[in-house]
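Q: What residues go here?
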């Protein structure tokens, strides 16, 4: 088994294998974006669960198709959480917007 803090994954035979952490481009929309903006700072460790999408666009200079994968979180799907490994946090309920009648 890997040492503390070392990324790992279990293989089919139950053996632990060292693994590399991953980094992703993330886009957050709606109320989740507001809460992340109000609660987190640059470099704060967070967990993201969202939909992976591939964005594409033509390169401005060459016209070649460029792509990148992004994880999208919005009001319909996805969650963002703060890692409490090295920081503490206090839960503060956000006011719900008034519903139109």
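A:
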């Amino acid at each position: 088994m890997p040492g503390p803090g070392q990324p790992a994954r279990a293989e089919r035979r139950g053996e632990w294998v060292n693994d590399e952490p991953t980094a992703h481009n993330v886009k957050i929309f709606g109320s989740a974006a507001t809460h992340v903006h109000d609660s987190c700072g640059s470099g704060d460790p967070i967990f993201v669960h969202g939909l992976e999408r591939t964005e594409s666009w033509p390169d401005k200079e060459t016209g070649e198709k460029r792509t990148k994968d992004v994880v999208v979180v919005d009001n319909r799907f996805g969650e963002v959480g703060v890692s409490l490994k090295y920081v503490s946090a206090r839960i503060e309920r956000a006011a719900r917007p008034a519903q139109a009648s």
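A: Context that may help when evaluating the design: The beta strands are 8-10, 16-18, 25-28, 46-49, 51-58, 65-73, 79-82. The helical segments are 30-39.
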